[in-house]
């Protein structure tokens, strides 16, 4: 822990980022010597000690780039974070990874496509990396979690690893902690600002061997992630969409420029499709009533009252069942109704 303390002491010094960190270590010859040089501020030492105490109480671990658990792909990037914090299973960070990103305002069809891709990757023991935002990110994480097993997905956060954003994804956050890993380069408890999300996007691209871009407009954060992937020589895929939809402009432009391969489905990556997992099919884990609801929901939002008429149940009973299905990642509320994921 002394080594982590020293590394954090350097990183938490005012004005010091990854570049400054490397310069200080090079200047003084070692992490310990650099920490001794900057660690004369009692308040700074106390702040680092408090951060490490909070991390320990919340089962957060710090991983330096000298650790065997530090992701190789991330480590290969110039000016990578010298220390990342991890909540969940750190073994997940040793897996091969694929990134899947896209708009927060994804269509139901787009999210269903992404979830199927993510499930297939996870079923083939490839961890799915995304940013835990609403829409595409959520579909990617939940799709990966549909596959049987653990270490299926990694969420990269712009804030501290313990700062859950957006709040609507709190249940997803804890599912990822239980069956994957949540990581961040920021201090524990840190509340993110705009530039932090841009840097988060860079690390999503850096962690992966290939990145898949789903629906995204031309000036979205997801397109920045794609740009980072191109700059890092990662293999880039884009999911084409209807040209009249603004969400198609990002991926379609990448395909047109020849910088992204056209992603048409699971068959682009695997010949056997999804090896295992529940998928979107009816199964014994759902009650008969829940399966009836799933049968009645498609890509067009269906209201609770309409579902109640179809399933022949009260609206209150339908609401209860929908909450369960939403928590399982099988349905999502959109435009006053529910769509199937």
Strand order, biggest sheet? 1-2-6-5-4-3-7-8-9
Shape: globular
The number of distinct β-strands equals 11
CA-atom Rg in angstroms: 21 Å
CATH topology of the largest domain: Rossmann fold
Under the CATH scheme, which class of the largest domain? Alpha Beta
Mean pLDDT across residues:
90
CATH architecture of the largest domain: 3-Layer(aba) Sandwich
- Stretches where pLDDT is under 50 for at least 5 consecutive residues are 275-284
In what range is the share of β-strand residues?
5-15%
Largest sheet: 9 strands, mixed
Question: What count of structural domains?
Answer: 3
- Count, helices: 14
Q: What is the succession of H and E elements?
A: HHHHEHEEHEHEHEHEHEHEHHHEE
Relative helix content = 40-55%
Question: In words, what does this structure look like?
Answer:
This protein is of the alpha/beta class. It folds into three domains: 2-57, no CATH class; 90-268, Rossmann fold, CATH 3.40.50; 288-340, Winged helix-like DNA-binding domain superfamily/Winged helix DNA-binding domain (Arc Repressor Mutant, subunit A, Orthogonal Bundle). 44% of the residues lie in helices and 13% in strands. It has helices spanning 2-11, 18-28, 31-38, 42-57, 72-75, 108-123, 136-146, 170-179, 194-207, 221-231, 249-257, 288-296, 304-311, 315-327; strands at residues 60-64, 83-88, 97-101, 127-130, 153-156, 181-184, 210-213, 235-238, 261-262, 331-334, 337-340. The strands form two sheets. It has a nine-stranded mixed beta sheet with strand order 1-2-6-5-4-3-7-8-9, with helices on both faces. Strands 10-11 form a two-stranded antiparallel sheet. Helix 7 (136-146) crosses helix 8 and helix 13 crosses helix 14. The N and C termini lie far apart (43 Å). 45% of the residues are buried.
């Amino acid at each position: 822990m002394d080594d982590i303390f020293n590394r954090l002491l350097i990183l938490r010094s005012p004005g010091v980022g990854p570049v400054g960190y490397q310069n200080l270590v090079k200047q003084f010859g070692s992490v310990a010597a650099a920490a001794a040089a900057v660690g004369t501020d009692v308040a700074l030492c106390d702040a680092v000690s408090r951060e490490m105490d909070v991390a320990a109480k919340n089962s957060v671990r710090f991983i330096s780039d000298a650790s065997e658990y530090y992701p190789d792909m991330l480590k290969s990037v110039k000016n990578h974070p010298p220390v990342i914090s991890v909540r969940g299973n750190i073994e997940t960070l040793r897996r091969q990874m694929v990134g899947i990103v896209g708009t927060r305002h994804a269509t139901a069809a787009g999210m269903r496509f992404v979830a199927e891709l993510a499930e297939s990757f996870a079923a083939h023991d490839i961890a799915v990396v995304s940013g835990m935002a609403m829409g595409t990110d959520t579909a990617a994480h939940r799709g990966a979690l549909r596959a049987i097993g653990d270490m299926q997905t990694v969420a990269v956060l712009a804030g501290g690893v313990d700062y859950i954003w957006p709040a609507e994804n709190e249940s997803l956050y804890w599912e990822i902690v239980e069956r994957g890993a949540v990581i961040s380069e920021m201090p524990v408890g840190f509340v993110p600002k705009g530039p932090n999300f841009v840097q988060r996007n860079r690390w999503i691209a850096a962690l992966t061997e290939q990145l898949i871009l789903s629906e995204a407009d031309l000036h979205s954060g997801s397109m920045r992630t794609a740009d980072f992937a191109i700059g890092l020589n990662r293999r880039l895929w884009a999911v084409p969409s209807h040209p009249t939809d603004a969400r198609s402009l990002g991926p379609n432009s990448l395909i047109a420029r020849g910088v992204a391969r056209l992603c048409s489905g699971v068959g682009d990556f695997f010949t056997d499709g999804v090896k295992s997992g529940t998928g979107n099919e009816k199964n014994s884990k759902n009650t008969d009533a829940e399966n009836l609801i799933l049968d009645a929901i498609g890509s067009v939002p269906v209201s609770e009252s309409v579902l109640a008429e179809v399933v022949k149940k009260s609206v209150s009973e339908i609401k209860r069942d929908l909450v369960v299905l939403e928590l399982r990642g099988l349905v999502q509320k959109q435009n006053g109704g529910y769509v199937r994921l």
